[in-house]
Amino acid sequence: MARGGCGGLTRAALNSRLSVAKAFPMRPSNLSRLVLSLSIAAALGLPMAACTKSPAPEAAATAAKPAASVEKVVDEHSYAEPDKVRTTDLALDLKVDFASKTISGTATYALEWIDKAATQLALDSRDISIQKAEGLGADGKWSDLKFALGGKDPILGSKLTIETPNRPAKVRVTYATSPEASGLQWLEPSMTEGKKTPFMFSQSQQIHARSWVPLQDTPMIRFTYSANVKAPADAMVLMSADNDPAAVRDGDYSFKMPQKIPSYLLAIAAGDLVFKPIGARSGVWAEPTMVDKAVAEFIDTEKMIDTAEKLYGPYRWGRYDLLVLPPSFPYGGMENPRLTFATPTVIVGDKSLVSLIAHELAHSWSGNLVTFATDKDAWLNEGTTTYVQSRITESLYGRDMAAMEEVIDRNELKEEFKELDPKLQRLSLKPGDLADPDNSSSATVYTKGAWFLQFLEQRYGRAVFDPWLKGYFDHFAFQSITTAQFRDYLKANLVDKHPNVVTMAEVDAWLFDAGIPNGAPVVESGKFSTVNAARIAWQGSNNLPNPIVTDEWTTQEWVHFLEGMPDTLKPEQLAQLDTAYKFTGTPNGEIAMRWYPLAERSGYAAARPELGKFVERVGRRKLIMPIYTALVATPEGLAFAEQSFARAKPGYHPITTGSVEGVIAKAKDKAASTTVPFQPDAPAATPGKMESMEVPQELHPVDPAPQTPPES
Ligand SMILES: [Zn+2]
């Protein structure tokens, strides 16, 4: 099969991530025709060769030698000094104030002093005002400590240095957040589903916990936590802790998280939230108007937990509940322990988006239980989770579904590798590779990471690999580890125990080289072969595929149909597709994020009004960034993007706002640089210099915008 036949992705794929939530239904009018989405539909076409036969990208970078296990681990995205002192417990006493859009109160840290000569406690903070720092004396009394707040680094925030000459067992900081806290979003009632009460929620990953709690904001440190939270009496407050399904809404709430977590799993939400159970240990928190729909959508959650437990051992976190957030949530989901935060864009009526829940649940093992020590090892969280997600999907919904999702992911990865800096194509990053952890290359971290584990699984077979992975989760449970530690464990417990199956050179090629190693396993999808044939036939003849075929298509097949299109089509071709499939106006974000950029690039003006409504309604970066990126490619589109963004901004999360502002600013800079009049005497007029001027060092002063928004 021709490589372009199925690997020819649109640019939309370049700027998007697919591994979390790939499945969307079509608009409601088409639902009945597509309702079978997740079942194994009747075989529609011959299981022909799959479209992933194209050669794997060549390894482009020189192999970096694995780090020695004894090497000192440094988290360059934190001011904390874990080799001197570690927080073992965090006690919060907070007040949530919707009027001022602030959280204020105290954070008390139980400290383990590792360096007995240390005299300072260094904490991370961002846009937080510090009123007081105190230390607990041996006499049980609190006394003031000197402190200093450093200048603000655009990525790291401000270092809070507290003088602790006596190394107190506990330190207490009194503080207040800023209304602009990067890790919090405050929504007016009008931006919620119910429109009656305001809403607030946190997103701490990657390094935004420091914007609402001053703390050692590095995944190298794990701590238990407790919290007392005061809020308006009509607001239910939830945290990534022991939420009580029967909690009385009285404005005064207490929480305990008895398992040690890294700071990025600290989470809070407050609003008009009600609970409805799914199973004995799972349920949904959502606004009242959303909760029934959410329960119906996520009804398989209990089955997913059972499936994951059979593979990887007991779920160790007590309850597993879901919190459905407003559409402005910048991610698909966030694996906050005991309470996954999820976008409502996955609630579409036919359970076709449940791979998002499989992903977030999988983090209960990969990520929350065994955690990356620094952002340089992000694949340990996301790659392993994407692998586990696929196993859950396969177990519940069949190999066809898992295979289609893997093909879509790997096509995206191959496309991304065409432009991605080789140093960011490595699973294990080196110090300095990643300036801002929000900008990690998602396809590499998620898809290449999962592909590596799929390679191991294929070589060893599930009878060997599954128990090994379960053992890995057990061995490192509640620890934060590096890629070097993973590698050592892999060598000792899999490679050396089962000789002549995989070499460490092969392992190291996956971990430390760019690209995908030769010999990577391919995945076959017969269903996509049918899609390819349908698309190619239409391109050659303008004859749409027989509805008998397309009526059976799942969202994954529609995604593949669109991704295989050329970069641009003729407007009349788009009109033909639109008339037949109602792409414009689709509530299905996975379709929208591919259709609108194609329409924009092709000059299909009919899609514009609905495109505008979509980006103003939805704040999930993955879904809207490809559309903004397509818009800003033309001056007229840039103007439209700016107008849409101005209307949407009040409802966007700060993380999304930063991303959109970055894309718009970059486009404007580019436009400005290309209109600079030629000046023979000026050095900047040389083509090389002009080129360098097009890429500003800093796209946005607060939150530099990723071109490829990672999901969680
Ligand atoms: Zn994830």
UniProtKB/TrEMBL annotation:
InterPro entries: Aminopeptidase_N-like_N (IPR045357), Aminopeptidase_N-like_N_sf (IPR042097), ARM-type_fold (IPR016024), LTA4H_cat (IPR049980), M1_LTA-4_hydro/amino_C_sf (IPR038502), M1_LTA4H (IPR034015), Peptidase_M1 (IPR001930), Peptidase_M1_C (IPR015211). GO terms for cellular component: cytoplasm. Residues 670-712 are annotated as: Disordered. Its cofactor is Zn(2+). Its EC number is 3.4.11.2. It catalyses: Release of an N-terminal amino acid, Xaa-|-Yaa- from a peptide, amide or arylamide. Xaa is preferably Ala, but may be most amino acids including Pro (slow action). When a terminal hydrophobic residue is followed by a prolyl residue, the two may be released as an intact Xaa-Pro dipeptide. Belongs to the peptidase M1 family. This is Aminopeptidase N.
